[in-house]
Amino acid sequence: MKDFRRALVSLCAAVVLLCLAPHGDAAGAPASERIGIVGAGKMGGNLAALWSKAGHTVMISSRHPEELRAQAAALGPNVQVGTPEQAAKFGPVVVIAIPYGAEPELGKELATELAHKVVIDLGNPYPQRDGPMAEQARAEGSGVASAKFFPGARLVRAFNAINYNDLAKQAGRAGERVAIPIAADDPQALRVTMQLVRDAGFDPVVVGNLSTAKRFDVGSPVYTKVLSAQQLREQLGLAPR
Question: Are 52 and 75 in contact (CB under 8 A)?
């Protein structure tokens, strides 16, 4: 009986300590995420810097990762380098930050590594650069098109409607933050991406499922416009928050 009472007291103490310990949002800090970025250009590099500053561990990548070491060192202590395959394996979130025309082949090469992961696609189809496939992607919408390139992934369209200068300069601005439109079919992938948008210093605005990504594609009225969440919702005819 005494042993039972001691065990019960220990269990109660452990529960109390667990309840008192800070975790996640209760401590006022987001949970750290491991994020692989396929690419290391201006968009991928700026996101790596913002997320590294927010406490996430990030891997930027190219087929010649040794050439990225100086860039990674400049971006912050939480930034690593690797190949696209290593970036795809790195964590539960993968960002596709390469020219849109290269996405179909990438999707085939990394199908196993990207399966079931949150994949944030920020590429934009430009016919002058990407050829006829870009024309088709624009016609059907980038969300619908990209879903075909990454069929096993939990795809999200985000960060495609902001240019790299505004991504760097407008992050965490005073007053109302700049809005980032998001489209996704998977609810959990949507939640993860919304938090990463906040961690980067922006305000997420959910537009709808992947088919609605066309509303903030290249050529849309809100593409690369610096808008607050309220302004973006008004432009897109979304219900106020």
Answer: yes
| CA distances from residue 88 to 92, 108, 132, 207 in whole angstroms, order as listed | 9, 13, 27, 26
Q: H/E element holding 20? A: helix 2-20
pTM equals 0.87
Residue 180: strand, helix, or coil: strand
What are the percentages of helix, strand and coil residues in the chain, rounded to 5?
A: 50, 15, 35
**pLDDT tens per residue, the chain (241 residues)?**
444 344 433 434 333 333 333 334 333 445 789 999 999 999 999 999 999 999 999 999 999 999 999 999 999 899 999 999 999 999 999 999 999 999 999 999 999 999 999 999 999 999 999 999 999 999 999 999 999 999 999 999 999 999 999 999 999 999 999 999 999 999 999 999 999 999 999 999 999 999 999 999 999 999 999 999 999 999 999 998 7
Domains delineated in the chain: 32-236 (3.40.50.720)
